[in-house]
Write a structure and sequence with these properties.
The protein is mainly beta. The chain contains two helices and 28 strands. The N terminus is likely disordered.
Length: 359
Amino acid sequence: MLTSSRHRFSDHCARACTASILLLVSLCAAAQPQQSSAGEVVYVSNEDSNDLSVISTRDNTLIDTIAVGTRPRGVKVSPDGRTVFVALSGSPKCPPTMPDEECEKLVADKSLDGIAEIDATTRKVKRILPGGSDPEQFDVSWTAKKLFVSNEDANQATIVDLATGAVERTITVGREPEGVRLSPDGKICYVTGETDHNVTVIDTATGNIIGQIEVGLRPRDAVFLSNGTRAYVSSELGNTVAVVDVAARTVSSTIKFPEGAKPMGLVVSPDDSRVYVSTGRGKTVAVIDVATNAITQTVEVGARPWGIALSRDGKRLYSANGPSGDIAVVDTTKLEVITHVTVGRSPWGVAVGPTPAGS
């Protein structure tokens, strides 16, 4: 009996130790940083209410609204989540339905143009950087500490030095430039020209133009795969997405979209398997299979989606739906809308970043 009791006591200790070890492992695993959408923040530029909406990804709720300046559109967040940049414009808003002669009668206030730099912890505007005339979209070289900005009404791109806060160079590009995207290695920058239906390729080290690529009608946005060999360019009026051979600077193939779709914003999944495309008046986000360059799925997200962004793990997609004043949150695994979050008037751009320390 004594031996049996000792065995039972020993078995009990073994089970208890095993449970303790498993609990410890579980706690340690939980303490490790996870590449998930939990703990991230979504920033949404609202063109007509002149502010930036801040959404928590933990429960998809609006947690703050930051006044930033006139007509905020392009938006980027730093990799550490501490800084947000937003493009501001003092040029009047001229929708596609407005005749050019009517638009020209509207008064622009160039003193309102610029790039707002926001402290994401305090949620306050730190400074307004120059961004050229009518800045719309931009990209940021976090290593070189430079902004590359499209200036729609001046047919230019502007390079801004973040350290000095000064314009480093202004470059003439395709007419009505909009989309701006740096390659993954930061060596080249694509700027889409809406009226010239092309992409201007800029050498970021010199600021020189090293090529132009003819794409579809009214190109809006561009993205690169992570290895930098291939790019995708959306063409709103061409109803297409061009697949670009980056080294050759040529369109290798063209993806035709269904009637009524207007390809606009683009984002690539973290594993490079998908390209997501917002379709504007088509009301959907479409999925391109990178392996086949075929459209495999679509999901209806809301009225005229434009800016889109992904969580770092790629499991959530956020779509800015301008006319309805909300953001659609999409489960990319099931490709279905989880919820809509009401934001400001005419949401335009979306950026996702980590929650900054201390906020």
